[in-house]
Design goal:
This protein has 22 helices and 22 strands. With about 750 residues, the chain is an alpha/beta fold. Among the domains are: about 10-85; about 90-185, OB fold (Dihydrolipoamide Acetyltransferase, E2P); about 525-759, Ribonuclease Z/Hydroxyacylglutathione hydrolase-like (Metallo-beta-lactamase, Chain A). Helices cover about 50% and strands about 20% of the residues.
């Protein structure tokens, strides 16, 4: 097998795509890559001239021209985006309509909108609109708003949004107040009309099939993934079948296959069928909002149709690269689109699996007398091969963007794949015949059962402990790209022995396992405490990770701690320890549990009606999740990661809603203590208990939660020699208040983050 032999256009398209992507890298990295490839092109050109190989000479020239064209195109696109950012920065009044709802949260919405006017002047460009409240905007809505336009690179609240869209959407429009947004009447727009039709069809599915099945059908058929609950999205992600919820070639192929079968039964000639299917596919892509992944699928489908009409054979590999190259030529920034990247890589994996399968005797040697068992085994092997190839091909993108991968992906994709296809077929039949109760009713019942089976399958795999494998281990990215590169090379060259194709997979598995074991062993005998100023203390060891909340209860604070845990190679949260009650805790816990696997939530026994009310909200947020809720008493020593954690009673100031907090964690001979300033005051009744935690601690963190000042710092005099004192916020304290109690050489001032190892 020599997959890339004589596919010259494929090489040209590959170089164009690669250099389009390289153009958005940092300058230093880009220069080194460009110089490296320039040397390769020059060497190939020189060798072609020396050996009088015209093909090699011409191809090397074309590759160099493709690289140059890609770089120029990307630079022009970036300069255009930069000019928009410079022109519209500041507060403006904009008008336009919503093209797509990226995220719909109860505290923030992210939308992609088409701007048609700025400050009563005509304009035409796309922008990301963020409402810092729960807006009612949906696809196709016309609006006017007073917004603050901020360069994407400076928008700090949603880092993932900034990183993914900095070049495609150079600026972001933010609406802070609901009064600054208003709906308007707009004229007819084809895209708006299609968006409205999409919404009506989606509503019909939700009403006819019920909330759960209807939302799932709307996501799979119409691309409205934002309707699905966060818990469903989490289960699909942890099960390794999240890609089924994103419209791609799979969904287009299934739908067009259904329509082709119907047209065939109507005895319509194949040539006419091809033309009708091409029109239907274009309409479907427009109906779902021209997603790049579905556009890629449609263009590849058109390549099949055109090849049939002109009577020419089609090469799948060349078609794939050509189609993606066309998309990037039209919109250079689309090369950064995660959906397009995953769609391209997964399709590459499918094509690779079919080419490899053609050389596997058990798969290709089909016989008429094969038993049902043999046919089933052959189909299972073929599906496993496809799943493996798709896994390897998409692994680099998954490692970069998500940092973790599901170990269930090989099995879950086989099981869920059948359920997904069957459900899509029935959901489409229901949608078409929804007005005919005699057909829609029984079809709807079966569709609901399939939807329950599909979500149940996702939930089953999601609930398996440690099912997610972190890709944040040291050298993980190097190993991932080594695996990908070795697999592509071995796929693309002619091998005398086909079994050698398994070598990269085996080597990667062994190297990665060794890498994980070495990393785990290096931290096996210690607990790490990491302090994020004002937000949390993260305790971790090989036994797991716990988050001690000392924030105002907002979801973003929990996410910052979880991101820290994920960076330390944890894919699940063993426990969240609430030290106090705040009105935002209910919503935050609900959001966090819907997005991450959490085993335990530990909370203090409430002492006021308000605290009981907040606890009730937390309990209701966890009632549908497999999460243990434990209530602890003041000074109760909690078993946390082979150590003991004690939390003191909350101390409220006059007129304050944020209590002063104190907690202490002991592991072996080490102790770390956190406390707000008032806990050092002599008037506190708990001083006797708290004094022990101060005098015995190796690390003392003077935090910021609650009141900012203390009447005295006499407990500092009891600190043992060598104790490190971290004062997180200089604005909360005056050194003159306590410098007489402590050697200032042991004080760390103004630290935003600190990591300690307890031994």
């Amino acid at each position: 097998m020599n997959a890339f032999a004589k596919r010259y256009f494929t090489w040209i398209a590959l170089i164009y795509l690669a250099f389009s992507l390289f153009s958005y890298l940092e300058n230093k990295t880009k220069i080194f890559l460009f110089l490296g490839f320039a040397l390769i092109f020059f060497a190939a050109f020189a060798y072609g001239l020396h050996s009088k190989n015209k093909n090699l000479t011409i191809v090397s020239i074309l590759l160099a021209l493709a690289a140059l064209a890609a770089n120029i195109s990307a630079d022009i696109s970036f300069l255009h985006s930069k000019s928009i950012a410079e022109k519209y920065r500041d507060v403006h009044k904009i008008s336009g309509y919503v093209r797509e709802v990226s995220a719909d949260r109860d505290f923030m919405n992210e939308l992609i909108v088409k701007v048609e006017g700025v400050d009563e002047e005509e304009a035409s460009f796309d922008i990301i609109l963020v409402t810092e409240f729960d807006s009612e905007l949906s696809r196709g809505d016309f609006f006017e708003a007073t917004v603050t336009v901020i360069p994407m690179a400076e928008y700090s609240k949603l880092e993932y949004l900034r990183n993914a869209n900095e070049y495609k959407y150079p600026v972001i429009a933010v609406i802070e107040n609901e009064d600054d947004l208003g709906l308007t009447e707009g004229g007819f727009r084809l895209s708006v009309g299609l968006a409205s039709l999409n919404s009506k069809l989606s509503a019909r599915l939700r009403v006819g099939l019920g909330k759960g099945a209807g939302e799932l059908a709307s996501a799979l058929l119409l691309g409205n993934r934002d309707l699905l609950s966060d818990s469903v999205l989490r289960d699909f992600r942890r099960a390794g079948i999240y890609h089924m919820l994103a419209l791609s070639g799979l969904h287009v192929a299934i739908l067009m296959g259904i329509f082709e079968l119907i047209l065939k039964k109507l005895l319509i000639s194949k040539r006419v069928r091809v033309i009708i299917l091409a029109i239907l596919s274009a309409f479907y892509i427009a109906l779902t909002g021209f997603l790049l992944s579905t556009c890629r699928a449609m263009l590849m489908l058109w390549a099949v149709y055109i090849s049939y009409l002109v009577g020419r054979s089609r090469d799948a590999m060349t078609s794939l690269f050509a189609v993606v190259c066309i998309i990037v030529v039209i919109d250079p920034a689309s090369v950064l689109d995660i959906g397009l990247q995953l769609s391209f890589l997964s399709t590459f994996g499918v094509i690779a699996s079919s080419m490899i399968g053609a050389h596997v005797p058990f798969i290709k040697n089909k016989r008429k007398d094969d038993t049902v068992l043999i046919k089933a085994a052959r189909g299972a092997v073929s599906l496993l091969l496809t799943s493996l190839c798709v896994f390897v091909s998409t692994l680099p993108a998954i490692a970069i963007y998500f940092g973790e991968v599901s170990l269930a992906t090989f099995i879950s994709n086989i099981v869920a794949g059948f359920l997904c296809e069957a459900f899509m077929v029935l959901a489409l039949v229901f949608l078409v015949f929804s007005r005919l109760t005699v057909i829609a009713a029984p079809v709807g019942v079966v569709a609901q059962l399939l939807a329950s089976a599909l979500t149940g399958c996702a939930e089953l795999f999601s609930d398996i402990p440690k099912i997610m494998l972190s890709l944040s281990y040291p050298f993980a990215l190097i190993l991932v790209f080594t695996l990908f590169g070795a697999s592509v090379v071995m796929f693309g060259i002619k091998l005398p022995k086909k079994w050698l194709l398994a070598v990269p997979i085996i080597c990667f598995a062994l190297l990665f396992a060794a890498n994980v074991c070495i990393f785990s062993f290096s931290r096996s005998d210690k607990v790490t405490a990491e302090y994020i100023i004002g937000d949390s203390i993260v305790l971790s060891s090989n036994d797991g990770v716990y988050i001690c909340d000392i924030s105002d209860g907002g979801a973003s604070n929990f996410y910052s701690a979880i991101d820290l845990a994920k960076a330390n190679c944890f894919t699940e949260i063993d426990g969240i320890i609430l030290t106090h009650y705040h009105s935002d805790h209910q919503r935050a816990i609900d959001k966090v549990s819907d997005n991450f696997k959490i085993s335990r939530v530990l909370a203090p026994v409430p002492v006021t009606l308000d605290e009981w009310y907040i606890l009730d909200g937390v309990a209701r947020a966890l009632e549908d999740e497999d999460v243990e809720l434990y209530l602890y008493n003041p000074f109760e020593e909690l078993d946390v990661l082979s150590g003991k954690l004690a939390v003191t009673p909350r101390a409220y100031g006059v007129g304050g809603s944020h209590p002063s907090l104190a907690l202490s964690y002991a592991y072996k001979d080490s102790r770390i203590t956190f406390a707000s300033p008032p806990y050092f005051s002599t008037y506190l009744e708990e001083k006797g208990n708290f004094a022990k935690y101060v005098s015995e601690c190796d690390v003392l963190i003077v935090g910021t939660h609650g009141r900012k000042h203390s009447e005295s710092f006499d407990l500092f005099s009891t600190l043992k020699k060598g104790c490190e004192v971290l004062i997180s916020d200089l604005a909360t304290l005056e050194l003159s208040d306590f410098e007489k109690y402590i050697d200032t050489r042991r004080i760390i001032l103004g630290a935003e983050y600190k990591k300690y190892e307890l031994k």
